[in-house]
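Customer escalation, tier 2.

The customer says the design service returned an amino acid string that "doesn't look like it belongs to this structure." They asked us to rerun it and document both sides in this ticket. The original structure tokens are below, unchanged.
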């Protein structure tokens, strides 16, 4: 066997192994590797992490995973009674690693942009510092493209994009001028932010937009760590609150009995991506991981999505395949 034949064989083997991993894993390869061999979440012990949208779902799972590893927390959402309950759970999970003062309940409606500075000051007053901002608050959507009222587009972008950008800018300015130029901004995006899903046009557009905002920040401010985490279908109450085509409506459907990753598994992977400061990561049960990888290669994505069609793609998205 010549050198070039050996090189070709090794390249072919490498590609084959990667494709098998795409099919087998429930997250991207880099995240999977770091979950076993990377920086453990426990290395973040003592840091201050602010999680918005923390009262349920992915935000709650991330907060609990952080608490388990002794990370000091700011937990925010509109529902204060659920935050109080989460605080008790965090302290139980911490098993003595955290005190009462190490979990700060900060009720907050992220849509009230004028209040962001005030909330940020409360965090600094309580802890004296902030190390990581996790922008997790947001809503999904289910609607046909041509039926969507433009006011829904505006409302969803206000929540999933503009509120995230505004709070992140406050954090970045703090990191640059008061924290030695270093800090970590994290956003909960979606696989739909780079792999468009049918019947969620506004949601997909919002996640594409927030990815672009954060990737640009990464280029401009090299001292700031930026992590984009992109879950696929997760077993939460996300669809209950999802936008539809009309203003004020909620989708109101349950995700029970659907094929979805558990919030706990998602929270653990999310925490790993934060601890390892990964640029972009994603997760989801088969075949979500494969489709996420395929979407990174436009030629391959065009072939696969054309073969699948919108019906099959929607079934995957709704956990019915």
């Amino acid at each position: 066997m010549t050198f070039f034949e050996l090189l070709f064989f090794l390249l072919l083997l490498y590609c084959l192994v990667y494709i098998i991993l795409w099919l087998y894993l429930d997250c991207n390869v880099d995240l999977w590797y770091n979950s076993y061999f990377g920086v453990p979440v426990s290395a973040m012990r003592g840091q201050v992490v602010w999680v918005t949208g923390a009262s349920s779902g992915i935000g709650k799972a991330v907060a609990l995973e952080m608490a388990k590893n002794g990370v000091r927390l700011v937990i925010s959402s509109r529902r204060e009674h659920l935050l109080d309950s989460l605080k008790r759970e965090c302290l139980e999970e911490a098993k003595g690693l955290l005190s009462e003062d190490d979990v700060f309940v900060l009720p907050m409606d992220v849509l009230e942009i004028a209040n962001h500075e005030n909330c940020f000051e409360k965090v600094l007053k309580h802890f004296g510092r902030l190390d990581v901002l996790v922008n997790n608050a947001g809503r999904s959507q289910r609607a046909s493209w041509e039926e969507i009222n433009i006011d829904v587009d505006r409302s969803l972008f206000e929540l999933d994009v503009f509120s995230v950008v505004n709070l992140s800018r406050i954090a970045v300015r703090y990191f640059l001028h008061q924290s030695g130029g270093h800090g970590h901004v994290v956003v909960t995006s979606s696989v739909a932010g780079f792999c468009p899903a049918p019947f969620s046009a506004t949601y997909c557009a919002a996640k594409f937009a927030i990815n672009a905002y954060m990737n640009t920040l990464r280029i401009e401010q090299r001292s700031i760590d930026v992590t984009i985490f992109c879950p696929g279908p997760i077993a939460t109450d996300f669809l209950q609150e999802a936008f539809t085509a009309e203003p004020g409506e909620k989708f109101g459907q349950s995700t029970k009995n659907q094929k979805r990753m558990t919030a706990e598994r998602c929270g653990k992977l999310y925490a790993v991506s934060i601890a390892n400061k990964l640029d972009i990561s994603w997760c989801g049960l088969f075949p979500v991981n494969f489709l996420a990888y395929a979407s990174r290669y436009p030629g391959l994505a065009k072939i696969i999505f054309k073969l699948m069609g919108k019906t099959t793609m929607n079934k995957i998205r709704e956990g019915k395949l």
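Tier 2 assessment: The sequence is consistent with the input. Residues 25-317 form a domain with the Rossmann fold fold (CATH 3.40.50.720). The two ends are 44 Å apart (CA to CA). Sent an explanation to the customer and offered a walkthrough call.
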